[in-house]
Amino acid sequence: MFNNKVTIKSLNKLRNNMVGHVGIEFLEASEGFIKGVMPVDDRTKQPFGLLHGGASVVLAETLCSVGAMLHIDAENQVAVGQEINANHIKSAKEGVVYGEARAIHLGKNTHVWETKIIDEADNLICISRMTVAIIPKKNKG
Asked: Quick one: signal sequence residues (predicted)?
């Protein structure tokens, strides 16, 4: 169940959080797929001038969580990260990195997503896998 009513424009309005802090922008989303871009700049580099591994994980978790959200009943359910791992393959010093997350499993209670992060020269920077728990929203009343 892909929610095609959510647009890239509306996703890119989600700025008052980590997404906006590190400059992530969503580029495309479709059934079982979501893509985004993140700058390699002072917000996302570690002290030695390289892309921070944690920033790569932020990009991966963001894409997987939002990708999962697009495949659930968002009025009654919420997608939350349960586990994430990342293998950092190569470093990046400048420009941008692109993340492409693909669903491996879209179950009723859990999703599993894999994200590949590449640089502008198509070098693999990081590969990550995330398990997302699909839980009921709590009543606010």
From this structure: none
Domain that holds residue 118: 8-136
Q: How many domains does the chain have?
A: 1
Q: How far is CA 13 from CA 8, 9, 26, 28, 104, in A?
A: 9, 7, 10, 14, 27
Sequence length of the chain is 141
Specify if 3 maps to a domain.
Answer: no
What is d(CA 128, CA 126) in angstroms, rounded to the nearest whole number?
7
Q: Reply yes or no on whether 61 is catalytic.
A: yes
Q: Is residue 141 part of a domain?
A: no
CATH code for the domain of 35: 3.10.129.10
Residue with tokens 């995330």, as numbered in its chain: 130
Please compute the mean of the pLDDT values over residues 12-34 and round it to a whole number.
96
Bridge partners of residue 96, in order along the sequence: 39
Residue among 25, 28, 31, 61 flagged as catalytic = 61
- Judge whether 1 lies within some domain: no
Rounded to whole angstroms, the Cα distance separating 27 from 2 reads 17
Mean pLDDT, residues 124-134 taken together: 98
